[in-house]
């Protein structure tokens, strides 16, 4: 008769399984070939001192885990294994602890690779994806929380999980929120306004003034065409659009059309000339203003920057000031997205869709989700399918799931000229709309905002714009990430922002931070004060939308373009 307890037998099996997996991973790393572009490529090498130290550390931690496991469930701090079901089940707790040990070891192996930084980043990214997918929490056989729920509900949670899975397969993406609870124009994107112009690329929205007087220079927002504009108008209390209107700005917003096959041939030049430049011209025509103020967010900022450079090359300066929110202008540091970009990848995209076709919105959305796989993928796999839960309502995640397509020629050109070759910051290297681009000619004042934890536009990349644009500049860094850092209304009193009182913009972000001061709350108030300084005098607010018969209200905001699904 075997004297060992079932727990001890299970733990021993887990130790053996994970020990074997670590050994196999080690062998794989030792044999790993850069697989780069030729069969003659040299295999990747591991730093011997790092490898020896890692092996020693692994054996010590594995022994400690085994000893602790025999005495009771190991303590787990990872939120994926934080439920009571994990703590109360020694086998589950041990599997989680063993997994985390192996995950740390595999990441250590990735860091021990002797290679250039880009290769190392790609290996780390691949290991992170594999480890995120292989977490015990992702499998019903190991997830004690899901098992406990299945028993408590007499299998109903499993039935609901299958129902959720079939629903998500039908809709084509993992549900991050209960999308049935939201409707664009009903409970998101509700700021009052009207469509006053449209072409095949965008609708121009004008918003109803909320003050008796408005500033004489109107305000145009250019959002990213990779997502829909209403991230800037989710709810009244967190709407940057409504905030601008409340501050007395006559506000216009570009609402990009969600491309279908009829737009599959559109190029970067089309989005610059028939998009941002057309919007600037229409706002001038409607308001009669000689100059306007403009804001670009993310890719919208890159498009706006290109438009301003083209206009400058033509001797035209219709924009008095520009705001760039989490915008890449200098693409030297593109963060984690750099792991995807090389000559072979860009050539493939050019061959695939450079002359026509669509980059599907769901493919883009999946790519961005897997940049944070635990939070934006596997968390919902566990909740939706293993536990049979319906994710709670969240407007931001509804917006995040409302994906948009991109025209293939636009996408391929954007990849090569910005992400791969960084041509925008090279004077006269890039030709856009028939004009040589030289950012040195953009002398207008600019407000540059970057988010400290942004994984799409790294804070160093946002700061790099201060070294590229020659006009008077103000740089502000906000807390949090790409979206939460931007959508941070003052009334919430959340997060912080950093400003350098002396206005100096040294060569690097680290040098700037040495003289920066942290301020509690939103950066919006600082930006509002800055924008008012460029908005001119106040005049009576208009009584209606548009101007005359040429630019009249066509339909209520948010318009029809934003409602088209990918």
Mean pLDDT: 90
- Whole-angstrom Rg: 27 Å
Instruction: State the share of residues found in helices, binned by percent.
Output: 40-55%
For the largest beta sheet, what order do the strands appear in spatially? Answer: 17-16-15-14-9-8-6-7-4-3-19
Oligomer: single chain
**Approximate strand percentage:** 5-15%
The SS-based structural class is alpha/beta
Ranges where pLDDT stays below 50 over 5 or more residues in a row are 1-8, 21-41
Number of strands: 19
Task: Give the biggest sheet.
Answer: 11 strands, mixed
- Alpha-carbon distance between the two ends: 63 Å
Notable traits:
single chain; 566 residues; alpha/beta; two-stranded antiparallel ribbon; 18 helices; 19 strands; globular; disordered N terminus
């Amino acid at each position: 008769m075997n004297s060992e307890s079932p727990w001890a037998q299970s733990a021993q099996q887990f130790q053996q399984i994970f020990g074997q997996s670590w050994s196999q991973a080690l062998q794989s790393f030792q044999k790993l070939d850069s697989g780069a572009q030729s069969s003659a490529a040299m295999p990747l090498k591991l730093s011997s001192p790092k490898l020896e130290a890692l092996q020693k550390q692994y054996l010590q931690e594995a022994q400690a885990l085994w000893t602790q496991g025999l005495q009771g469930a190991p303590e787990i701090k990872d939120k994926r294994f934080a439920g009571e079901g994990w703590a109360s089940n020694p086998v589950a707790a041990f599997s989680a602890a063993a997994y985390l040990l192996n995950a740390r070891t595999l990441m250590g192996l990735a860091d021990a690779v002797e290679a250039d930084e880009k290769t190392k980043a790609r290996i780390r990214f691949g290991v992170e994806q594999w480890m995120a997918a292989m977490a015990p929490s992702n499998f019903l056989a190991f997830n004690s929380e899901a098992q406990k729920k299945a028993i408590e509900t007499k299998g109903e949670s499993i039935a609901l999980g299958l129902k959720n899975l079939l629903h998500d397969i039908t809709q084509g993406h993992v549900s991050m929120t209960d999308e049935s609870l939201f409707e664009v124009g009903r409970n998101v994107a509700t700021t009052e306004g009207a469509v006053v112009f449209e072409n095949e690329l965008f609708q121009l929205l004008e918003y109803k003034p909320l003050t008796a007087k408005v500033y004489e220079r109107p305000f145009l927002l250019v959002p990213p065409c990779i997502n829909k504009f209403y991230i800037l108008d989710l709810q009244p209390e967190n709407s940057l659009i409504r905030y601008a209107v409340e501050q007395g700005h006559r506000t216009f917003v570009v609402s990009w059309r969600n491309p279908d096959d009829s737009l599959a041939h559109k190029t970067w030049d089309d989005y610059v000339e028939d998009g941002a430049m057309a919007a600037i011209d229409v706002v001038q025509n409607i308001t009669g203003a000689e100059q306007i103020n403009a804001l670009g967010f993310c890719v919208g900022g890159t498009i706006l920057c290109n438009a301003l450079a083209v206009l400058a090359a033509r001797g035209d300066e219709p924009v008095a000031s520009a705001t760039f929110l989490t915008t890449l202008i200098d693409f030297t540091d593109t963060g984690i997205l750099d792991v995807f970009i090389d000559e072979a990848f860009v050539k493939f995209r050019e061959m695939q869709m450079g002359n026509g076709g669509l980059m599907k919105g769901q493919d883009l959305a999946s790519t961005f989700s897997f940049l944070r796989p635990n939070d934006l993928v596997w968390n919902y796999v566990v909740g939706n399918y293993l536990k049979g839960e319906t994710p709670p309502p969240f407007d931001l995640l509804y917006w995040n799931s409302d994906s948009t397509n991109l025209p293939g020629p636009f996408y391929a050109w954007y990849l090569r000229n910005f992400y791969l070759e960084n041509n925008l910051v090279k004077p006269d290297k890039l030709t856009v709309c028939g004009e040589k681009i030289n950012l040195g000619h953009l002398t207008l004042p600019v407000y540059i905002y970057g988010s400290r934890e942004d994984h799409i536009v790294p804070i160093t990349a946002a700061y790099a714009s201060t070294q590229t644009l020659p006009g008077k500049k103000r740089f502000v860094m906000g807390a949090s990430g790409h979206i939460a850092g931007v959508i941070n209304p003052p009334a919430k009193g959340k997060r912080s922002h950093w400003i350098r009182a002396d206005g100096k913009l040294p060569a690097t972000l680290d040098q700037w931070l040495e003289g920066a001061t942290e301020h509690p709350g939103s950066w919006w108030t600082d930006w509002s004060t800055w924008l008012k300084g460029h908005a001119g005098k106040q005049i009576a607010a208009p009584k209606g939308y548009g101007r005359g018969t040429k630019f009249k209200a066509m339909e209520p905001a948010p318009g029809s373009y934003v409602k088209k699904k990918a």
